[in-house]
Amino acid sequence: MSETQGGGEGFPPVPPPQAQPYGRFPPAPPDPLARVERPEPVRRAAFAWWGAVGCWFLGSLLSQLLDSTLFRFTTSESVSAGDGTVVTRTVQGPLPTEIAVLTFLLPGALWALLVYGVYRGAGWARKLLAICGVLGILNVVIQLIALAGADPMRSGDVTHLVFFLGTLGLSITGFVLMYREGTEPYFVRRR
Question: Which residues pair with residue 69 across a beta bridge?
Fold first, then answer.
């Protein structure tokens, strides 16, 4: 008798027993607690987003310190004159330094924390950063258009313009890298 079973005319040979899946268990699913290697595009996207946060913060803060024309803080003071009339004096100027630091530090810190979620592989952070990133990019473009039309341009406007161009470039880079091919499996697991 031949080495393969069947061996008759018109019947296909039966494969050897080790190739048959009968009696074998399916392969084990991947361990949900196993460490997943961070793809290089995700790492570079996070650093691009963090760079955008830094450029946005520095551009916003320095524009206030150097008296930009885009962000003006209006204060009004009412003074009573001696004859019973009230005079209101309105003054425009930059935000006070302490208020400017807190005003720009809080959203910048939240933005950086969201980027950290993407860096760690949280799918919800990726989706939320995509939505906030698109809105942030549109906001930066609008501010750049307003800055380009500022007349006269002060040193705060130039600083604001340069840092916000960096913010725009780094945000777009981070957005593109975040959705590059090969990054999807990193965001599948719940973190």
Answer: none
Structure letter (DSSP) for residue 25: P
Instruction: Tell me the three state secondary structure of residue 143.
Output: helix
Tokens 């004859």 — which residue? 83
39 near 182, Cβ under 8 Å?
A: yes
Collect all residues with Cβ–Cβ distance below 8 Å to 175 and sequence separation of at least 6.
Answer: 45, 130, 133, 134, 137
Tokens 């809080």 correspond to 106
Please, which contacts does 57-62 make with residues 24 or more away whose CB atoms are closer than 8 Å?
57/104, 57/105, 57/108, 58/163, 59/159, 59/160, 59/162, 59/163, 59/164, 59/166, 59/167, 60/100, 60/104, 60/160, 60/163, 61/100, 61/101, 61/104, 62/156, 62/159, 62/160, 62/163
* CB atoms closer than 10 angstroms to residue 59: 25
* C-beta separation of 55 from 164 below 8 A: yes
Q: Where are the beta strands (DSSP E) in 5-149?
A: 73-80, 86-93
- Please, are residues 159 and 63 in contact by the beta-carbon 8 Å criterion? yes
Q: Cα–Cα distance between 133 and 174 in angstroms, integer? A: 9
Task: Tell me the whole-structure pTM to 2 decimals.
Answer: 0.71
Per-residue pLDDT of 117-172, as tens digits, reads 999 989 999 999 999 999 999 999 998 998 888 777 878 888 889 999 999 999 99
Task: Give CA–CA dist 121/187, Å, rounded.
Answer: 5
